[in-house]
Write a structure and sequence with these properties.
Number of helices: 9
Order of helices and strands: HHHHHHHHH
Radius of gyration: 17 Å
Low-confidence stretches: none
Strand content: under 5%
Distance between the termini: 50 Å
Helix content: 55-70%
Mean pLDDT: 96
Structural class: mainly alpha
Shape: globular
Number of strands: 0
Largest sheet: none
């Protein structure tokens, strides 16, 4: 048995079974991330709850995906980027922006680009955001509320990104064709 098994409803600890059933009902399948998280029922429950609550924030579904995918990119989560590529498309994001997020590149919409840059800065500086980054974010039309909602999105992705890095979560067949590796970004001359 692996240190990080892929649980089913039958093999998961009792405390994780209801959450796994709810995830399977929502997704129509049981993703390997949740199957892995089931080893720690409290982690699985917190992740599932966080996912639901983030969907209730002031951020649109596309903006939520900008936050999620930016964190996935920064944390080099090869498991999550394919899933969020699919979720970006389901949210109605322009295909050019879906590709931009996978490449760590600028988005076509200036307000969403400000959100991407802010999220990136928060991740990179571990929340110790520079005043200039905060000012640029607010000047783009975002608010203090949104800034704190970005923190929630980052926290949710830290749970999944770190789980996948630690456990080596295998890809799901549903997103296998969207496999991703972080591109090498050359610094500007």
């Amino acid at each position: 048995m692996s240190e990080f098994p892929l649980h089913s409803a039958e093999t998961a600890p009792e405390a994780a079974r209801d959450t796994l059933a709810a995830v399977e009902a929502d997704f129509g399948m049981l993703p390997n991330l949740e199957r892995t998280m089931a080893t720690a029922p409290a982690l699985l429950k917190t992740y599932a709850f966080g996912w639901e609550v983030f969907a209730e924030t002031s951020l649109s579904p596309i903006a939520q995906q900008v936050v999620y995918q930016t964190v996935n990119f920064e944390n080099e989560c090869t498991y999550c980027v394919p899933w969020h590529t699919l979720l970006c498309r389901h949210a109605g994001m322009a295909e050019a922006d879906v590709h931009a997020l996978r490449a760590g590149a600028a988005l076509s919409d200036p307000k969403l680009e400000a959100l991407r840059r802010f999220t990136q800065a928060v991740v990179r500086c571990q929340g110790k955001i520079a005043q200039a980054d905060r000012d640029a974010f607010l000047a783009a039309g975002w608010s203090a509320q949104t800034a704190l909602e970005v923190v929630l999105g980052i926290a949710i992705k830290v749970m999944s990104n770190y789980t996948n890095a630690m456990a080596g979560t295998p890809h799901d067949a549903a997103v296998a064709e969207l496999a991703w590796t972080k591109p090498v970004i050359k610094p500007a001359p």
